User: Fold this.
Amino acid sequence: MSTFAADGSEYSSKDSDYDEEEVARQVEYNREFPDDDEESDVVEEKPVPMSKNAGNRFVAIVWDREVDTQGRDALELHEDRDELIEEHVFFCRKRNLYNETFNTDSMVDILRSLPILSSDLLRIVGHALILESPDIRHVREMLEEEPILNMLNGGDVNGISLFRWRHIRDYTLRRDDGRDGYPCMMIGVDEDSDAESERVRDEAKGAFLEYLIKSERIIAAGPLHLPTEIKDDPSSVAMGDFVLFNAKSREDAVEFVEDMPTAERGLYKDLRVHFYNTLDITGKFVSEDPMRDAPNHQMKDAMEQWGYPVRDDQTPWLNW
Assistant:
């Protein structure tokens, strides 16, 4: 017969649910912690330093079919690109891992590498690179050596879309990739830069920014400018927009883009919307999962052997 407590529940303190070992572990877990008044070591935090390559941000966009010189079909391009992913990641990490004493001639930070997916999500159709460098000349030199572009056209940068990017660095436009949806990319290129196009962009600027902020789904955003040699060159006019955002479906993504004030005013002559993936190319090697990250650990061990600064404290500016 069950023993009942006074409240009518089928429980009695005489029938304990815990054995002695469990009780002992609980006592250990609930042990007293030191008083707040006790002294502890004081650690002085220093501001995170800027990268030596900071100051000029660029976006390079590669559409595989548009730059391929060998006439490959979509599946062949995907397979050839897929075979080079690890080499591409290795290439990017070697550029990002430098410090005051090693690899000091690396003049381009590759902030993000984003493979662009087909509408059915089955193939990679291109990629976008977000870059930072003191001189666009260094950007072009780096792209000429990039493995995937070399596979496509021998490293000819004239066939890709290269822009200066005025990244809007506001905390309201810094959502995590995949927060409440899937990461999506919008690339809009204006009608030919003329007085009418500039007028439309200027009129829609405020409403466009408000639209992005209120959406609470923006990962990163900013206008694309002509890739002039000098950042403040007056001829480096805005000629498009590059927006990373989260969307629950392709229909949701397309609707979000079509409702942008700039799109409604007919600003863009070329407007593309794609989901994308993110490659870990920073070189931080933060994850410690040996099952998932076995290739990463092999790469880390090799790069450390060659002298690259792979520890987190050796490259504090890599905090994108």
Residues 1-16 have pLDDT under 50 and may be disordered.
